[in-house]
Every structure is written in structure tokens, then in C-alpha cells.
Amino acid sequence: MPKVDRRIMKTKEAINNAFIQLMSERDFNKITINDISERANINRGTIYLHYTDKFDLLDKCIDEHLGNMLNFCTSTKTGEERLNIFHSLLPMFKYFEENYLLYSSMLSNKGISCFHDKMIRMSINGINELINTGKINQEYNKDVDIQFMASAFVGTVEWWIKNDMPHSPQFMAQQLWNIFERNQLFNP
Amino acid sequence: MPKVDRRIMKTKEAINNAFIQLMSERDFNKITINDISERANINRGTIYLHYTDKFDLLDKCIDEHLGNMLNFCTSTKTGEERLNIFHSLLPMFKYFEENYLLYSSMLSNKGISCFHDKMIRMSINGINELINTGKINQEYNKDVDIQFMASAFVGTVEWWIKNDMPHSPQFMAQQLWNIFERNQLFNP
DNA sequence: TAATTTTTGTTCATTAATAAACAAAAGTTG
DNA sequence: CAACTTTTGTTTATTAATGAACAAAAATTA
Q: What are chain B's domains?
């Protein structure tokens, strides 16, 4: 990958940090480009060099962080482990815990649904991968089933984050795993 | 004053922070321009746009921070208070306490004497101002006396900083003030 | 000491960020 | 609703920072 100019890295990080900070303070529709540029201590015009508007910024911000999460969950694993759902469940909860400020802001923030939507889409992708590799009980391979599972899964995770993470990552991963087992979701 | 480009502000602050950090870790002559640019996350060449070499950087760094100190000691005061030595002693000790990392690095660091020299010069300037305004007992108005007083004063402050500030700013200011009174240094 | 590596200070062409200005859109106020 | 203020998105000329290259100096190593 061609190395990125360090000015771009710094600018983007400043924008992202400012944005996440502001998202934890007030609702998305109360945040202006002005606010972001002031908080990030950069020229307002500079934001437009990287993002078309604040919706684009929100979009890319979520994409990047969910991408980091996925990476974190799969990076240190072998191909076999990667498809073992429990080995990914635990790091996922841990990652959310470590980035509490970001994800709780995103979820508590009125006026944005794209975070939820992206979580759903990510889950569906994950489920499809498990189906294609035969890890999942084929009987669940219908779009309604997939949607049902994704909604349940994402809803549970979101509930956990929004309610200040009332259980440990270990506990949550184990509980979800138990549910999956009880429903014979995974092939042995 | 004409407003400075915000890029310059950011670059200088990054350089200064990196430099102070490094000064607290190792001796000045073990610090390279390379180290500073890496720590500051800026291009090495950029340093040369603002400083001729690392000695110049050290010099300007000290000047700036001692300037801040002077400012802090005199800013919130009226003209009368400003020349009342006790009203400046206390804030001085407080300022050093608040910027402990910086000043203890400067003093503990082998290979630099300019910090001490600048402190002496600053004290001499202060004493001269007090003489010119008649605040100081005229009998002390000889260069040897001035040098004696400045050395004693600076040496005491440096001792306090180097030995991890064994007394409170209040105590130090009071003790110094007592010494001045005992020697009838100041006119009533 | 000689060979080698690191650091320095400078140059260069290129790119990113800047301040300032502007009209249009959106939001707020009386 | 109209007057007003704020925010937006874009443009422009200018400046600062960048990475890369280089030879010389300094420091390190054998």
C-alpha cells in the first residue's frame, strides 16, 4: 500500500477525534462542520478536502471503526479459528468495551440510523460466510432466518452497549454461544 | 500582533512537546534532531524551517517558558503589586510546581548550562528593576552585590526544583522573604 | 586507525492546509 | 412572514510541510 502523506493522517485523525468527541456531547444534527473544524483545530475548508459533508464523515467514521473491530476479531487468528464463532464473539465484546465512548455515542445519538444499519449488514455478511463454509446448520439458510438472527444478534449487542455494558464480555460471549447451541445453530 | 498560521503553531507545539519529553528521558547531547522529528511525528526538514539546530531549539524553548513564567507572575497584578517582591515570589514557585516535568528535566539534564545562565540573567534584570524604582536598599547597588543576590536566589530555586520540591511554594516564598527582610534588602 | 553507520544541514519539486472571500441555503428571531 | 444570523460548500492565491535526495560531518564499530 502506498504510504500516505503524514499530513493527511494527522488531519484525518484530528477530524475523527473531534467528531467522536462531539458525538458524545450532543446529537448528530446539532453538530456543524464549523464545530468539528474548531474542535479539531483545522481550517473548515480542509474537511471538504476529505469528506463531502458531515453525513459522509459519519459514514466513513463508522466504516473505519467497524472495520477496525472486524480486523481486531480476526487478525490474530488462523483460518480455522476465524470461522469459529466463539473465538470471534469474545474479542468483539472486548473491542466494544475498549472503545466504549465511541460506540455508546453512536448508539445513544438521535438522528442516525446508519450505525445500526451497518451493524446489521455486517452481521448478515458474517452469517452468509458461515453458511457458505458449512459452519451453520443449513436449515437456517433462508433470508428470513438470516434477518431474524442478525436482528437478534445486533439488537442484543446494542442493548448491551446502550445499557452501560451490564455484563462482562466473557459473560456476554458465553450467553450468546449458549443460545446458538440451544438452537442447534452450528454444525458440530 | 499578526495572527500566526495555525500550521506553524501546531508544528512548533509538536516539536516543543517532543523535545521536553526527550529531555526528561535522556541528556541533551544524547538527543538528535532525528529523535525529535520522530517523536513529534513531523518531517525532519521541518525542524530546520523553525530552528537552526538543536541548540537554537533549546535556547528558544527555555526563553519561551521562562517568558511564560514571568508573564504568569506579573500578568494579573497592578503596577504596584508587580514590584512587590512577595507578590511575585509565590506565583513563581507555583508556576515551577505546575511545570515540574519541564523544569526538573532542564536542571537535571547534563550538558546544558544555558538554563542556569538565563535564570541568572533574568534575576539580575529583576533586581535592577527594583533598584531603579527605589524598592531595594541602595546599599546593595553594586555589581558584586547584585551578582551575589542573583546567585543565591537562583541557586536556592534550582536546589528546590532538583530536590523534588521538598517544601510548598508558600513555605519557600515565605522563607525567601524572611531572608530578604533579615538583610534589610527592601525599603519599607 | 580505517571502515562503516548515523546524523546533519541543505536543496528541490510536489502536495496539503491555510485564510479569506463569496453566494446560496438553512436556521433563528422578532 | 420578513429580517437576520449562521452554516454551508466552493473558489482562489499563498504558505507550510512533505519525502526524497545528497554530500559532508560526526559518531560508532571493527
A: 1-50 (1.10.10), 61-182 (no CATH)
Residue type, B120: I
Strand partners, A186: A136
CB A46 within 8 Å of CB A37: yes
- Say whether residue B43 is in contact with chain A using an 8 A CB cutoff: yes
In the block, which residue shows the cell 536598599?
Answer: B137
pLDDT band at B17 (very low <50, low <70, confident <90, very high): very high
- Which DSSP string corresponds to chain B? -PPPPHHHHHHHHHHHHHHHHHHTTS-GGG--HHHHHHHHTS-HHHHHHH-SSHHHHHHHHHHHHHHHHHHHHHTTS-HHHHT-HHHHHHHHHHHHHHTHHHHHHHHH-TT--HHHHHHHHHHHHHHHHHHHTT-B-GGG-SHHHHHHHHHHHHHHHHHHHHTT--S-HHHHHHHHHHHHHHTT-B--
Q: Which of B4, B5, B8, B10 to mutate to test the interface with A (most CBs of A within 10 A)?
A: B10
Q: How far apart are CA B176 and CA B153, in angstroms?
A: 8
- Tell me the mean pLDDT in the region B37-61: 97
pLDDT value at residue A14: 98
Q: Which residues pair with B136 in a beta bridge?
A: B186
Q: Which pLDDT value is given to residue B78?
A: 62
List of residues 6+ apart from A57 with CB closer than 8 A: A15, A19, A36, A47, A51
Test the B interface: residue of A10, A13, A38, A39 with most B CBs within 10 Å: A10
User: Cβ(B87)–Cβ(B77) under 8 Å?
Assistant: yes
pLDDT < 50 regions, chain A: none
